[in-house]
Amino acid sequence: MKLTVRHTTRYRFTEPVRGVVQSLRLWPCDCASQKVLRWNVVTEGALRGAEFTDGAGDRTALASWRGPIDALSVEVSGEVETSDLSGVLRAHREKGSASLYLRATRHIKADNDLRELSAVALAGMNTASDLSRAHALAGAIADAIEYVPGETRAHTTAAEALAGGKGVCQDHTHALISVAHVAGIPARYVMGYLQSSEAGSPHEASHAWAELFVSDLGWVGFDAANRCCPDERYIRLGSGYDAQDAAPIRGLVQGSSPDEHLEVEVEVTAEQQQQQ
C-alpha cells in the first residue's frame, strides 16, 4: 500500500519570544515493512543544525528560530510504500540491546494494579510462547482501558489511565509497556502514523503503539487501542521509553514564558482512495 502523509504543527505565542530550539524526529526509516518514496520536512525561517541517527535507528535533526517570533510551523509531507508483516520489525538497523527497554519512567512505572493485571493476564501461560504472552498482555490492556478521547492528558501515567479505565492510544501504549515490564519483557513506545479513516480526513494527532521484544522474532508491534498488530496502514517514525522520550518534536522556548497555542493536523491517505 502507498500512503501519503501531510502533518502540520503550528505554534503561536501570546507574546514574541527570543527564540525556539527544537529536536525533530520526523523521518521514517526504511525497513522491511516500509520504504520511503519521498519525504520532506519544512521548517520555514529556521536554521537547521546537526542531523544524526541514534542508537535506536531513528533520525533526528535540530532546528532553531531566532526571534522575536510569535509563530512558527513544521510541515511534513511524503509518501511511503508499506506492507503487512504482522507487526514484526525487520531490517531495522539499531545498535542498542533490547534489555535497555526494561527501564521504567514516571509514565510507565507499574503500581499494584498494573502488576496484578499483568499476573492475571498471564495466569496459566508459563509454558506459552513469548508471542502468545505478548498478545495476552495487549488484549488485557484493551479490555481494561476503554478508548475515550478527552479523559486523559499528556502527562497521565499508565497507573492513572488504568485507574480511570479510559484513555487514548498514548495511555494504552504506556500501560502495555508497564505490564510487559512486570512480566520481564522489554517494551518500548513507538510514534508514527495510522491510515484509519476511509475518507482520509484529517486527524488531530499522530498515532502510538508499543513494541515488545519476542524471542525468535525480535521487536513486534502491538496496538492495544485498536486490538491489532501494525499492518500496511501504519508508518513507523521512531521509538523511546515513553511518549515524552519518543515525541516527534521536542522544543525549548528562549526568553519569557508566554502562553503557547498548539495546533496539529495529520492526514494519511491511501493511494487507492486518491484514484477514486
Can you describe this structure?
Helix 1 (112-121) crosses helix 4 (169-182), helix 2 packs across helix 4 (169-182) and helix 3 crosses helix 4. 38% of the residues are buried. The mean pLDDT is 93. Strands 1, 2, 3, 4, 11 and 12 form a six-stranded antiparallel β-sheet that branches. Strands 9-8-7-10 form a four-stranded antiparallel β-sheet. The protein has a two-stranded parallel ribbon with strand order 5-6. The protein is an alpha+beta fold. It is built from six helices and twelve strands. The protein is 20% helix and 42% strand. The two termini are 15 Å apart. A hairpin with a 3-residue loop joins strand 8 (207-214) and strand 9 (218-222).
- Strand residue content: 35-45%
Gross geometry:
globular
Major sheet summary line: 6 strands, antiparallel
Distance between the termini: 15 Å
Tags for this model:
single chain; 276 residues; alpha+beta; 6-stranded antiparallel β-sheet; 4-stranded antiparallel β-sheet; 12 strands; globular
Task: Map the helices and strands.
Blueprint: E1 2-27, E2 34-42, E3 47-53, E4 59-82, H1 112-121, H2 130-144, E5 146-147, H3 158-164, E6 166-167, H4 169-182, E7 187-194, E8 207-214, E9 218-222, E10 234-240, H5 243-246, E11 249-254, E12 260-270, H6 271-274
